[in-house]
Amino acid sequence: MRTTFVMDPPPIVEDWLAQRRALGQDRYDEVWEGEYRVAPMPKGRHGRVEVELVRILMPRAARAGLVGSGGCNIGAPGDYRGPDQAYFRDWQDLTYYPTAAIVVEILSPDDESRHKLGFYFRAGVEEVLLVDPDSHTVEWLMRGRDGLEPADGSAILGISSVDLAAAIDWPA
Fold it and tell me: Under a CB-based contact definition with an 8 Å cutoff, are residues 100 and 132 in contact?
């Protein structure tokens, strides 16, 4: 279900959003070109896969000179996306990061991860990793001339999609 306000949202909506922020329920919320998008917390398998990716990717990222992060904001206050993980060439303690070397999106049913790809390209992200806990698959995308293009693995981290998928202890 989608609800769009063509004017400022009514006070009850602003109060509800403030309550979500106070309770920490807004962790996956994003703003797309000024439009606030409310996203629920994902299923448990999402977190399990996230931990697996940290275990596998963090040592490779360190060897490549990258600093890893959990969820963060890529973009600016009025237009940002929140990947599940990001790896930075020049990490700083920011609220909004203009770009990242790699962003990771762990897919959930009905999520909008694939709709973020154009934004990530415009933001200068070098690689995107899409991970699907349901199908036990991983998909790497690399910067091309006009957009993000499928790749066999990560040129930055030196791991293939096949090897990464095999290394993940997928939840049942």
Answer: no
What is the distance of C-alpha 3 from the center of its chain?
Answer: 23
CA distance 92 to 106: 24
| Range 122-132 average pLDDT | 98
Decide if 20 contacts 37 (C-beta within 8 A): no
pLDDT of residue 16: 83
Q: Cβ–Cβ contacts within 10 Å for residue 129, how many?
A: 26
- At residue 4, the 3 state secondary structure works out as coil
| CA distance readout (Å), 115 to 12, 64, 89, 108, 133 | 29, 28, 25, 13, 18
pLDDT at 10: 79
Read off the pTM.
0.86
Q: Tokens 């399990």 label which residue?
A: 48
Mean pLDDT along residues 56-82:
96
Cβ(142)–Cβ(148) under 8 Å? yes
